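User: I'm curious whether this sequence folds into something compact or stays loose and floppy. Could you predict its structure so I can see for myself?
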Amino acid sequence: MASKMDGCTFVWEIENISHCWLSTGERIASPVFIADVLEDTKWSLWLYPMGYTDKNCVSFYLRREEDCTGPNVIKVNFQLSFLDKNGSFLTKETVFNWNFKKRNAFAHFIHASREKIFVSGKDEFLPNDTLMVQCTIWSKEGTPVKPKLISARTVYKINRRSFVWKIYEVNALKSGVRNKFKDDLIEFDLVLNAMSSFSRKLDIDIISFHNTIKYFSFKMAVINSKGEKEDSGAQEYFTDNLKKGGKQVLFFNKTLRGSKTLALQDHESDVLLLDCEFVSSNGTVVREHCGSGVILPKSTTLVAEREKSQNTSVLIDALKFMYKDGIRSDTELRTPTQIFPVHKNILSVRSPVFRRMFSNDMKEKNCGYVDITDLEDDTIHRMLLYIYTGTLEDMHFENACKLYAAADKYDIISLRSRCSAFLKESYAPPMRVKL
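Assistant: Here's the prediction. I'll summarize afterward.
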C-alpha cells in the first residue's frame, strides 16, 4: 500500500536572473500552487532580486494566497532554501508552528547576499544564469517523509547578440571610430576613442530605444594573439538611465602592449579584436510549470508567451539527468582530457554517423568507446546535451561556430540548423577602418 503524502515541496527556477530589471522593494511572484495535503490551501513565493529593503540582499518569502480555501488560520512548518544545480542546499532556514491567515499571510523570509549569489558564489548559485529556490511545507511534527513535488519555471526573456569587432591599424587610430548596432529594442553606436598612444576607451552612444525597453547591458573583452579573452568590464542600463538621454559612457581603459598582444593568430599585426555582447529586454516574462501537482495560472501584466507540456518537460528533465549522471550508459566518448558516458541507442537515433559506428562492423561497436580528438570538451558537452534534450545552453558566436562543426561532422541536421540560424542572426560584418 502506497504511503500517504505528508507535505508539499515547491521548486522554482528563475532563468536569466542576472538580467533582472527590478529595483529594491520590487518583486516577482511564482505561479500559485495548491498544497492539497494541507487542506487545499494556495501558496506562492515572492522573490526580491534587489532585496525587500536592503539592495545588498536577495530575499524571498512564503505567502498564503488571499483567495485561499481551508481554515481562516492554518498552522504549518516550512523550510525555505537556495539550491545548487543538483538540488542540494546552499543555504536554508526552517520555521516551525507558523500561523498563516488568509490575509496578511507573509512568513519569515530567507535571504543571501547579492555579492555571494552574483559574484563570489555565482557558479554554485547561478548555473546557466538560473536561480533555484525551494519551499517545503508540512503540518505534523518532525520533517515530511514523502512530500508531493511541484515545480515551476519563470524566464526573463532577453535578446542577446554577440559579435567580434575587428579594427585595423589600431596603433595609428584616431578618436571617433564608430560601429553601429541595433535590435528590435535599441539602436546604439560604439565609439572607440584614443586617450593616449597606449590607451583606449569605448563609449556607447544611445541613438534610440523602444518605449517598452526595461533593460540593456553591454560587456566587452579584448581577444589576444592566443585567442584568449581578457575581460574589460560590463555595464548595465535600466529605464531611468536610458530616459536621461545623451551619450552613455562606458570606460574601458585598455593598455596596448604592442602589436604582439593584439595580433591575430594569422600573424596580422596592428589589429584590435573586441569581443562584444549586448543584451536587451522589454520586460517580458515567461511563466511555465512542470512536474507533478497543480499550479494555477495567475492574473498578471507580465506576458506569458507559452506553456510547455507537462509530460514533455518531465521527459526532458529525466533525459538530462540520465545524460549528466551516465545512468546505465553502455559506451563512452573520449577526449584527451575527459570521458563522457553515453547511450548507444540515443546517439544512434539522433545521428546517422553514430548509428553506423554502433551498427556496422566498426571498432566503436565492440571496444566500448569512441575517441574524439578534434573537438573541445565544452563542444562535446553542448552536442550531447542537445542530443539528449533538444536544448542549447547559453550560446555565443564562438561556441556556436564550434558546435556547428560538430553537428556537421556527426550529421545532426536539426542542431546544424539551429546553429546556422543563431550565427546568421548574431553575425555583424567586421568594420575595417582605413586611416
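Summary: Residues 310-325 form the longest helix (16 residues). The chain has eleven helices and 23 strands.
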